[in-house]
Write a structure and sequence with these properties.
Layout (H helix, E strand, L loop, with lengths): L23 H11 L8 E2 L2 H7 L2 E6 L9 H10 L3 H5 L2 E4 L3 H13 L3 E6 L4 H9 L3 E5 L3 H15 L2 E2 L6 H20 L12 E5 L4 H13 L4 E7 L4 H8 L21 H10 L2 E5 L1 H14 L6 H12 L1 H4 L3 E6 L9 H5 L10
Helix pairs in contact: 1-3, 1-8, 3-5, 3-8, 5-6, 8-9, 9-11, 12-13
Length: about 350
């Protein structure tokens, strides 16, 4: 366990910089800014999944968000908070897919230029989405260092405004609006008990930490007693190891089918998560695919592997969540359908959880 949840205080919101840690007020500003741009996504329940997990599960379906992922929230907040002078220079970002598509769409909606640095191994469906929204694609190798080098080169060439996929306060604030919505929607269902937290636990997958950071700020801004737990693949456990050691780990090569969870924590997200996250739970790729299948079978929706990691973590750690009310951000649903047979072969039915 990394910490005891802090007591949140709010201060008057100011213009948020990319390198600035967002406050709870910044998240509320982001919610107002992207209202009408981002979809209000539904919260789904499943009695059979509750019975299997031994707890109440509330699934925030960001796979129904524009571009099929939560990433549009952060991208829209960042792009639409740019000054006219910044916007005129265009936007540059790096992405394996969902963030790139989200920034490309946000830029198209604002009518400004967008360049996305994309690793060659990015999923075909995600690469196509970036191009469909009119962005210029610049190829690079998969390693984080290669992505950073290519991004720096494009920024020098274009003079554009960097919208980092996760280490950006504007992006983090936008991502946090998903958890704000989740807590509001669950509260309206009459789940809140007395003066306690609306949900006992809020979870999201962990990669670079943008979604997890925004989720944590939102949860503790609503109620400091909400437990914030992250989930991460065993083959990309740099976030877990960074938070356990107290030192941000960089330079590892991830080995996981969860292509959206291969990034490493940034300085900004590492700082936020150290203050807010109780723990990071690890799961195998087979457990991830089994959870992905369960969501498909029980909720009747298709999610990408990265999105299934939190549910896999709950099922692997039932005693930790027994009897709790657990909110899970389903982060995205962009799956190359041609890969489904090989994916599902990693966890044939029936799957034995630990």
């Amino acid at each position: 366990m990394f910490h005891n949840p802090p007591t949140m205080t709010t201060t008057p919101a100011l213009a948020l910089r990319a390198d600035q840690r967002p406050s709870f007020d910044d998240l509320r500003d982001a919610a107002a800014r992207i209202s009408g741009l981002a979809h209000v996504t539904p919260v789904l329940r499943s009695a059979s999944l509750d019975a299997l997990a031994g707890c109440e599960l509330y699934f925030k379906c960001e796979n129904f968000q524009r571009v099929g992922a939560f990433k549009f929230r952060g991208a829209a907040n960042a792009v639409f908070s740019l000054s006219e002078e910044q916007a005129a220079r265009g936007v540059v970002t790096q992405s394996s897919g969902n963030h790139g598509a989200a920034v490309a769409l946000a830029c198209a909606l604002r009518g400004i230029n967008c360049t996305v640095v994309v690793p060659g191994a990015a999923a075909r469906i995600k690469r196509a989405a970036i191009a469909r929204h009119g962005a210029r694609i610049v190829d690079c190798d998969v390693a984080q260092s290669a992505r950073n080098e290519a991004t720096a080169r494009v920024l020098a060439e274009t003079g554009g405004e960097l919208v980092h996929p996760y280490n950006d306060g504007r992006v983090i604030a936008g991502q946090g609006t998903a958890a704000l919505e989740l807590l509001h929607q669950v509260d309206r269902r009459g789940v809140a008990r007395d003066s306690g937290p609306i949900l006992d636990v809020v979870m999201a997958p962990l990669s670079g930490g943008g979604l997890m950071s925004g989720t944590a700020i939102a949860a503790h801004g609503v109620h400091p007693g909400i437990r914030v737990i992250a989930a991460e693949p065993e083959g990309a456990r740099d976030g877990h190891d960074s938070l356990v050691s107290g030192t941000r780990i960089t330079g590892r090569v991830a080995n996981t089918i969860s292509d959206g969870l291969r990034a490493e924590l940034g300085p900004l997200t590492f700082d936020i998560l150290r203050d807010h996250v109780e723990r990071v739970l690890l799961v195998s790729d087979a457990e991830t695919v089994a959870a992905m299948r369960l969501v498909y079978e029980r909720l009747k929706i298709l999610i990408e592997p990265s999105c299934a990691v939190p549910l896999a973590a709950v099922l692997r750690n039932r005693t930790l969540f027994a009897g709790q009310r657990v909110g899970i951000i389903l982060s995205g649903g962009n799956v190359d359908l041609d890969t489904l047979p090989s994916l599902f072969s990693l966890a044939p039915e029936p799957f034995e959880w630990p």
